[in-house]
Amino acid sequence: MTARMLFSVAAAALFAGQAYADGELNLYSSRHYDTDERLYSDFEDATGITINRIEGKADELIARMEAEGENSPADILLTVDTSRLERAKDAGVLQPIQSDVLEARIPSYLQDSDNEWFGFSQRARILFYDKNDVTDPPRTYQDLADPKYAGMICIRSGTNVYSQTILSALIEHLGVDAAKAWAEGVVANFARDPQGGDTDQLRGIVSGECDIAMSNTYYFGRALRKNVDGLSDSVDMVGWVFPNQDTIGAHMNLSGGGVAKNAPNKDNAILFMEYLASDQAQEYFSAGNDEYPAVPGVALSPSVAQLGMFKPDDVNLSDVAKNVPEAQKIFNEVGWK
Ligand SMILES: [Fe+2]
Fold first, then answer.
1. Cα 59 to chain center, whole Å?
2. From the CA of 256, how far away is ligand 1's center (Å)?
3. Tens-place pLDDT, residues 48-79
4. Straight-line distance from the first to the last Cα atom of the chain, in angstroms, rounded to the nearest whole number
5. Ligand 1 centroid from CA 20, angstroms
6. Nearest Cα to 165, choosing from 253, 236, 80?
7. What is the set of domains in the chain, with CATH numbers?
8. Helix orientation angle between 37-47 and 3-14, rounded to the nearest 10 degrees
9. CB-CB neighbours of 92 under 10 Å
10. pLDDT tier at 37 (50, 70, 90 boundaries)?
């Protein structure tokens, strides 16, 4: 039985009583992963609903939904990073929804407390190091500020949402003063000024530009699964650490979405959200983009499983996202460009 047939059976079960929904779904998405194509085509095949996609940067899509107002054709906003989902909520472009399926399948710490957004996949932001040079790698985020790692760290810009959200989580756990002291210590340990994406931080270890890097897990998982230039050929020299396993756990972020405030196809929008929480879609988030499913118990793909099990930080991500303005302020004050 092929995956598509399996999904159809699951979809049929999920959409029992609705032989074939009709109409369409207008999806505003800032997920930047080609592998999502399959997510959309499987849904269309199973339901007969046509997905019309508008893709762009999250803040541009949010501004567009605001500008479109009541006439906005948007049904769903799909994006990565909690801080962006919170920005959409704060902008008033989402609406709370009721769904027993989402309530049952998405853990509460991965959903907005007012049901305006739900997380559908997770990613851990962890530490990587050069196994040839580093015999005593950092075991906690706090360790990154230890002067013994002076000149050794590649890390992303303070303007990047992944950086902002992890500092926001440290503010939530440690308080503003300790988080700022941490950021100062990390800046002192930079191997170079922040530049590039997560994959470039990992490439920095391979090229010898630095010995330690921070990245989301799926960028490394991807290099284990398929060829990533400047990384896959040398993955054997790269070690990884899930930080803070004895305390708060490894920082988790998510990719998720919400139903638009003026969704013209609200029922189809909720159906799509419930589909993203289905076993089939959840397994695909892992297999297609090396992410962790949001639904507990869903099988991990081999590249994700290869990273090993770990203790995730289950701090409420809605609370974390509220610290982003403070995090931006700290990055500016300590010169974390
Ligand atoms: Fe990403």
1. 16
2. 12
3. 999 999 999 999 999 999 999 999 999 999 99
4. 52
5. 34
6. 253
7. 3-122+254-301 (3.40.190.10), 124-250+312-334 (3.40.190.10)
8. 60
9. 12
10. confident
Q: What are phi and psi of 29, to 5 degrees?
A: -130, 135
pLDDT, tens only, 118-165: 999 999 999 999 999 999 999 999 999 999 999 999 999 999 999 999
235: exposed, middle or buried (Cβ count in 10 Å: 0-12, 13-18, 19+): middle
Query: What are the distances in angstroms from CA 200 to CA 153, 169, 216, 228?
Result: 12, 23, 12, 11
Q: What is the dihedral of CA 55, 284, 320, 69, to 10 degrees?
A: 30
> What pLDDT is recorded for position 91?
96
Cα separation, 204 vs 191, in Å, equals: 9
Mean pLDDT to the nearest integer, 82-108:
95
Interval between CA 80 and ligand 1 midpoint (Å): 7
What distance in angstroms lies between residue 233's CA and the mean position of ligand 1's atoms? Answer: 21
**From ligand 1's centre to the CA of 117, what distance in Å?**
19
CA neighbor of 8 nearest in space, from 47, 52, 61, 34: 47
pLDDT digits 0-9 by tens, 251-272: 999 999 999 999 999 999 999 9
**C-alpha 269 – ligand 1 centre gap (Å):** 24
* Helix ranges restricted to H, 107-265: 161-174, 176-188, 198-207, 217-225
pLDDT for 4 beyond 70: no
Ligand 1 center to residue 313 CA distance, Å?
Answer: 19
Q: What is the mean pLDDT of the chain?
A: 92
The single-letter code of the amino acid at 160 is N
- Dist. CA 16 → ligand 1 center (Å): 34
Q: How many angstroms does the Cα of residue 42 sit away from the middle of ligand 1?
A: 23
Q: Using one digit for the tens of pLDDT, what is the confidence trace for 101-120? A: 999 999 998 999 899 999 99
